[in-house]
Design brief:
rod-shaped; 1 helix; mainly alpha
């Protein structure tokens, strides 16, 4: 009977040890799984942050390029307006000069006509 009791005790201890081992194994696996999950989440978060940073940088670059293009277009438009202003001013100056020449020629002609008339009077 003692032998049987000792064997039962041994068997119970063995079973308890096996169960403890199984629990420890399960706990270790759960811990490992949790760690893996955490690492996955961290990696995903890092990836997302990097992607968002890239997108922000790209958007910023695009905005900068658009701003630069707008400034260049504005500068071009301003230059074109200045050129047009100069062209109109030159045209006006030319027209004024032509008018002045014409007036001078008329005055000269008038003087010549008056002189001729005076000369004709003298001759008559």
């Amino acid at each position: 009977a003692e032998k049987k009791a000792a064997e039962e005790k041994k068997a119970a201890e063995k079973k308890a040890a096996e169960e403890k081992l199984a629990r420890e194994k399960a706990a270790a696996k759960a811990k490992a799984d949790a760690e893996t999950e955490r690492k996955k989440k961290e990696a995903a978060a890092k990836e997302r942050a990097e992607r968002e940073a890239k997108e922000r940088a790209a958007a910023e670059k695009r905005r900068a390029e658009e701003r630069k293009k707008k400034e260049e277009d504005a500068a071009k438009a301003k230059a074109a307006a200045e050129k047009e202003k100069e062209r109109v001013a030159k045209e006006k100056a030319k027209a004024a000069e032509a008018k002045a020449k014409e007036a001078a020629a008329k005055a000269k002609q008038k003087a010549a006509d008056e002189k001729k008339a005076a000369d004709d009077k003298k001759a008559a």
